[in-house]
User: Fold this.
Amino acid sequence: MDSFFTALGPSQSLNAIDAVFSLTLSFVLGLVLATVYRWTHQSFSYARSFLHTMVLAAIVITVMIMAIGNNMARGLGIMGAMAFVRFRTPIRDPRDIIFLFASLSVGIASGAQVHDIAIIGTLYFCATAMFLAWSPFASRREFEGLLRFMLPADSPSQHYLHDIFQKYASSTEMVAMREAIQGEVQEYSYQIRLIDPSYKTDLVDTLSKLEDISEVSLVMQRTTVEI
Assistant:
C-alpha cells in the first residue's frame, strides 16, 4: 500500500546534464530512423516534412517521459489531457501536429513543476526545428520523375527503350501499364531517375522521335511533391 502512494507522489527530477544527454540521444536515434527511411523509400510520393516529424517526435516524447518520470499521477493526467483534445480541424502538415504536441508536453512539464525539463526541452526542440529547416537534411536531389507515353504492343520502337533509358537515366522502374484507345495501344508509366536534370528535355525529345510513340510526358517529382 505504501508503494502505491509512493508511485502517486513526486518523482525525482533529472538534472540538466541527464536531460541534455537524453534529448541528444533521442535526436541522434531519430536522425538514424529518418535516414534509413529515406534510403529505403521507393514510392513516388516523398515528403521532407515527414522525416522532420520523425526526428522532432522523438524529442517531444522524450520531454514528456522525463516530465512524467515514475509518477503515476502525471501519467494519468496526460491520459486525461490527450482524451480531452479533439482534432476537428484537418492538419495537412505533420510538422504542425508535432508543434502542437510540443506545446502540450511543455505545458505538462511546467504544470508538473519540472521546470528544468520544460525549459531545456523547449530550447532543444526549437534548436532542432531550426536546424532541420536551415540544413539540407532530408532534401532529395536525385531528379526523380514520372514518365508516361503510349506505344503499340507490337511496335518495333520498344527495342530502343532500354538504350534510351540507359543513356539518360540511372534507374527506371515500370509502375503501370494499361490498354488505351480500345486496346490499340498500351499506356506505360515509368518511375525514372535522371542522371542530370538537364536531360529532361533530351529524354522527351528522343522518345518523341520514335515511331508509333505518342503523348510523351515527364513530370519531375521535385517540382510536384517538395515545394
Observations:
- Strands lie at 144-151, 169-180, 185-194, 214-220.
